[in-house]
Amino acid sequence: MTLPILDSVAVLGAGALGAFYASQFYQAGFATTLIARGARYEALAREGVVVNERPFRLPVTHPDDGYPVDLIIVALKHHHLGEALGDLRPFVGPHTLILSVMNGLDSEEIIGQMVGREKLLYCIAVGIDAVRDGHRVTYSAPGKLFFGEADNTAVSPRVQRVQAALARAGLVYETPPDMIRILWWKFMINVGMNQASAVMGAPYGVFQTMPAAQAIMKALMDEVIALAQCAGVNLSDQDITDWYGFLNTLSPQGKTSMLQDVEAGRKTEVEMFGGKVVTLGKTYGVPTPVNETLLRIIQVMEAI
């Protein structure tokens, strides 16, 4: 059976990433809607979003009025996922595919338990430096989406459908042979960059130029590498070296999502970064003192 092309897109989460991806699909002619309810629905319907100074009056759909779409992008913070999971159901049809650009290692499994694991492809966003201020989003580097099945040595038909849609939307993508390794690589980056930047109040430029900042980032990442090897995932010091190729493309003034959350007084995702590392460390018997220290620091920062 020939599967239909992807032509309709719904985005759950209209933060920096969600607004960016929604604007890209909308400009490319996809039937695009944002999923929201309550005060967030009212704000998006009233104000829309502004991406790099261009206003977008994107359609907003309440879950009660939801309808099946071809592709769903989930771009939530981890602590918002549980309460929003039910909002996805009305938008899932027989041929719907879902990409989660959320941070961490667990979102695909959590979403899959609600709507069916067969709807999910693994996905990460790397190298995008989008910053959100209210309903305004700015970015200088759009980055790249890595996505696919767990094993992409042979590219599946559903991956091909999404590849065609991303190309049409002008989004840069790559489908790596081993997607699980790439998920861990992004997790390593988030654990190092997000936590270090949040504690130091440091934008990307500090990590591009200052060895002391790089050393803290690397110490956090080294603990992830040790855990990955226990989990049978092939990460190494070379993966940290490879990260600098992306880091150096980002705006020196750009900020990680966790630093943006700290500055805005929002809850961070530290439990899914440092917290996850500490938990996995106990599981595998691997010491994780650097992550445990920053986890505690950031929890205190959130509380005061």
Question: Can you describe what's shown?
Answer:
By secondary structure, the chain is an alpha/beta fold. The protein has helices at residues 16-27, 38-47, 78-84, 107-115, 157-168, 179-200, 204-209, 211-230, 237-247, 257-264, 274-284, 289-303, and strands spanning 8-12, 31-35, 49-51, 54-56, 60-61, 69-74, 92-100, 120-128, 131-133, 136-138, 142-148, 173-174. Helix 1 links the parallel strand 1 (8-12) and strand 2.
Question: What's this model, at a glance?
Answer:
The chain is α/β, with parallel strands linked by helices and 304 residues long. 47% of the residues lie in helices and 19% in strands. It has 2 domains: 8-177, NAD(P)-binding Rossmann-like Domain (Rossmann fold); 180-303, N-(1-d-carboxylethyl)-l-norvaline Dehydrogenase, domain 2.
Q: Which structural traits does this protein have?
A:
single chain; 304 residues; alpha/beta; Rossmann fold; N-(1-d-carboxylethyl)-l-norvaline Dehydrogenase, domain 2; 2 domains; eight-stranded mixed sheet; four-stranded mixed sheet; 12 helices; 12 strands; 47% helix
Write the SSE topology.
Blueprint (H helix, E strand, L loop, with lengths): L7 E5 L3 H12 L3 E5 L2 H10 L1 E3 L2 E3 L3 E2 L7 E6 L3 H7 L7 E9 L6 H9 L4 E9 L2 E3 L2 E3 L3 E7 L8 H12 L4 E2 L4 H22 L3 H6 L1 H20 L6 H11 L9 H8 L9 H11 L4 H15 L1
Helix pairs in contact: 6-8, 6-10, 6-12, 8-11, 11-12
